[in-house]
Amino acid sequence: MKAVILAAGVASRLRPLTNNTPKCLLKVGPKNILELALENLVENKISDIVIVTGYLENRIRDFLKIRFPELNITFCYNELYNSTNNIYSLWLARNALQGEEMLLMDSDIVFDSRIITRLISSGFKSCLALKRHEVHDEEIKVRTDMNGRILEISKEVNPAEAAGESVGIELFGKDLLSELFRVIDRKVNIDKNVNQFYEAAFQELIDNNHDIYAVDVTEYFCTEIDTEEDLRNAGDLYNKQGGA
């Protein structure tokens, strides 16, 4: 299994904090967001990692060279980071994942390592972490059937019908991963849809009767960092948890 971390974005909502620092290197307590994520991967015995960089990529490379020299990290550079969305960043990682399972992660979440453990041990070949709470327009929302199979995933899901929020950690088995990249390759190269969220490709798989399941991780600490308030709240929550 390889982990893919998407860390190309500019994070303009966090300026001026991100003027000279990529979002994933912002501190939550004594450590930065990316450091915490990588520690969670190591705790789950995942050491093969693909990181898609873009904005201030050298800062990320320099940090990882010093902090995690033992990890097998492959870098993919998104030179169009200022004009593309995460579907394009994920597409750039395709050649580094031949014949592998993939654990996909956004680089702006602070979370409990047991979320990864739960996904891996869920029994599902392909699944994602679901947080059950009151959802609003901005979240990536998920609608499921009675068995937890995802029927719909997007920001446009009716909040009244949503099972909860997709937190940005997904597991794909080898076979479905191949299908996923076939969909993404068409979207990028033929449809020229480089500004979509990667969940649009998930939805196409679901519409074509491929199974992706939601795994409830509500009991575990997990928060996304989009604003300075998010960053402060994450630090407070992290400290209350005693360090995730």
Summarize the structure in words.
With 244 residues, the protein is of the alpha/beta class. The protein has one domain: Spore Coat Polysaccharide Biosynthesis Protein SpsA, Chain A. It has seven helices and 13 strands. Strands 1, 4, 5, 6, 8, 9, 10, 11 and 12 form a nine-stranded mixed β-sheet that branches. A two-stranded antiparallel sheet has the order 2-3. Helix 3 crosses helix 5 and helix 5 packs across helix 6. The longest helix has 16 residues. The protein is globular. The two termini are 23 Å apart. The mean pLDDT is 94.
Q: Helix/strand/pairing class, anyone?
A: alpha/beta
CATH superfamily: Spore Coat Polysaccharide Biosynthesis Protein SpsA, Chain A
Give the number of helices.
Answer: 7
Helix residue percentage: 25-40%
- The multimeric state of the shown protein is single chain
What characteristic shape results from the CA principal axes?
globular
What is the tally of beta strands? 13
Overall mean confidence score, pLDDT: 94
**Which percent range describes the beta-strand content?**
15-25%
In the CATH hierarchy, what is the class? Alpha Beta
Number of domains: 1
Straight-line distance between termini? 23 Å
* Topology pattern, helix = H, strand = E: EEEHEHEHEEHEEEEHHEEH
Low-confidence stretches: none
Instruction: Kindly report the CATH topology.
Output: Spore Coat Polysaccharide Biosynthesis Protein SpsA, Chain A
Overall CATH architecture: Alpha-Beta Complex
**Over the alpha carbons, how many angstroms does the gyration radius reach?**
17 Å
* Biggest sheet character: 9 strands, mixed
